[in-house]
Inverse folding.
């Protein structure tokens, strides 16, 4: 081994001679040695040599010599690094290999921990970015929520149990109400930002206009829509959950209007001068004598040969009415499907049959020459479908208002159908018919069947499947006889001794 007092670049650039060549530059006594090595293959390396606690003299590698155009340490850099190792050695750290291995291990552990920390931070950032994106997607506007609610919940569909769900108009009525009252101020607002105060402002506006029922209906729809959003985690809470009808339009009042006998007689006297179409007059008496709903009445069709029920049913659904077939020969009006999602057959009493006879006499042919008669009992002006379900209600309401409240381009006979007991509607006629049946001693369960009410008792509904058809026939005949007697003079002019015949029938039912 060669000995040199100072290691120089010239020494480090010497040729390899086929064996390890060592160069040593001792520091002061007890401070170790700065060493260099030229390997047989020409590799040039720097070391620090020291004496460990076992008395051995190991070499601690410092790095490679930097040759021209390469990387590594210069002689002076290597000497400075060896000096730093010497200083550490003189502080008492005698096992430098163990020391630096421990340091390296600690550094590696720290680096590993740092990598893990960085990875966790990155994962947290990714999670936050994902959550922010989800929040952005959740922050849909109130109008977008409405469209999703309508598409998902309000479209009429058939459930797996055969029951219909959704709304028969597909939410169009609700859409119109929201367009008028909600979207202008809140349509573009994110649903999470909609507050109870914002919604109550809209509801209070309807209340201030005196439209209390509108306010209650709107409250119900808004609450239902926000419950839909809450169930899908689109909002954290329903802002209207604690709001009740009492806070808005007031509790719903169940109508109990029933026309008295005198009012029925007064109605019979008033109808001829009420400037109503003959179909509308007949419709009012049918509402009373069959106790049907207005939507069932407007969906009535004649039992013609080759009747295309599938096509007519599709048209009826489009007009939001219930299809029913009137068979004058069988004296029946069969409602294929009703509000209760079951069929219902109404027996036509003499009184009801008289109204349908009258309607049949004014039946019109199709719009084109040679067209067969229209299938609808109450056709619209185009002849392609039934009259609007709102038509009869509007005509009745127009004739129960004071002249100063007359609507433009509507009838001048504004007071012609006003009765002593106050305003009445088509549904009040249905209730009146049921009340008349009760007065005649007909049992409540039979009246329920005539009204096509679902029996409330679950046990009766499941185990008693009899619809009491024979009792229904007798009940409808009794009601018709009572109406013949109440309206004998103005209504049954073409039938002699109508009052006597009606009294005789009633005696039979008693």
């Amino acid at each position: 081994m060669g000995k040199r007092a100072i290691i120089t670049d010239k020494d480090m650039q010497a040729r390899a001679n086929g064996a390890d060549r060592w160069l040593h530059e001792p520091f002061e006594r007890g401070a170790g040695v700065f060493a260099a090595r030229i390997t047989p293959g020409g590799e040039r390396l720097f070391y620090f040599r020291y004496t460990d606690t076992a008395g051995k003299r190991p070499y601690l590698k410092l790095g490679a010599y930097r040759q021209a155009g390469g990387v590594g340490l210069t002689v002076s850099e290597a000497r400075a690094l060896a000096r730093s190792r010497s200083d550490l050695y003189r502080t008492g750290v005698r096992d430098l290999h163990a020391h630096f291995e421990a340091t390296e291990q600690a550094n590696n552990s720290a680096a590993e921990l740092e990598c893990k920390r960085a990875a966790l931070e990155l994962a947290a950032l990714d999670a936050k970015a994902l959550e922010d994106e989800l929040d952005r997607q959740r922050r849909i506007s109130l109008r977008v929520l409405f469209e999703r609610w309508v598409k998902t919940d309000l479209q009429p569909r058939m459930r797996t149990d055969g029951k219909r769900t959704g709304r028969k108009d597909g939410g169009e009525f609700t859409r119109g109400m929201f367009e008028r009252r909600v979207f202008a101020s809140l349509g573009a607002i994110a649903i999470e930002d909609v507050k109870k105060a914002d919604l109550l402002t809209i509801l209070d506006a309807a209340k201030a206009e005196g439209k209390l029922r509108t306010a209650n209906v709107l409250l119900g729809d808004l609450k239902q829509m926000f419950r839909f959003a809450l169930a899908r985690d689109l909002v954290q809470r329903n802002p209207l959950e604690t709001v009740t009808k009492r806070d808005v339009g007031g509790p719903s009042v169940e109508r109990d209007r029933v026309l008295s006998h005198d009012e029925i007689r007064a109605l019979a006297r008033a109808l001829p001068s009420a400037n109503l179409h003959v179909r509308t007059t007949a419709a009012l008496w049918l509402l009373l004598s069959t106790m049907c709903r207005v939507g069932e009445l407007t969906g009535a069709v004649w039992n013609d040969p080759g009747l295309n029920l599938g096509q007519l049913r599709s048209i009826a659904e489009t007009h939001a009415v219930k299809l029913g077939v009137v068979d004058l020969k069988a004296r029946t009006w069969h409602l294929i499907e009703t509000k209760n999602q079951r069929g219902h057959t109404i027996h036509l009493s003499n009184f009801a049959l008289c109204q349908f006879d009258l309607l049949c006499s004014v039946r019109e042919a199709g719009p084109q020459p040679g067209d067969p008669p229209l299938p609808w009992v109450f056709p619209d002006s185009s002849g392609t479908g039934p009259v609007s379900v709102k038509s009869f209600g509007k005509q009745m309401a127009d004739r129960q208002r004071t002249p100063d409240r007359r609507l433009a381009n509507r009838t001048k006979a504004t007071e012609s159908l006003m009765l002593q007991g106050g305003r009445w509607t088509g549904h009040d006629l249905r209730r009146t018919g049921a009340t008349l049946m009760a007065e005649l001693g007909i049992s409540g369960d039979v009246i329920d069947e005539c009204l096509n009410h679902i029996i409330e008792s679950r046990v009766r509904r499941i185990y008693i499947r009899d619809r009491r058809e024979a009792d229904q026939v007798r009940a409808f005949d009794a009601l018709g006889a009572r109406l013949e007697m109440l309206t004998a003079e103005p209504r049954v002019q073409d039938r002699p001794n109508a009052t006597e015949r009606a009294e005789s029938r009633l005696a039979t039912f008693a």
Summary: The mean pLDDT is 87. Residues 96-138 form the longest helix (43 residues).
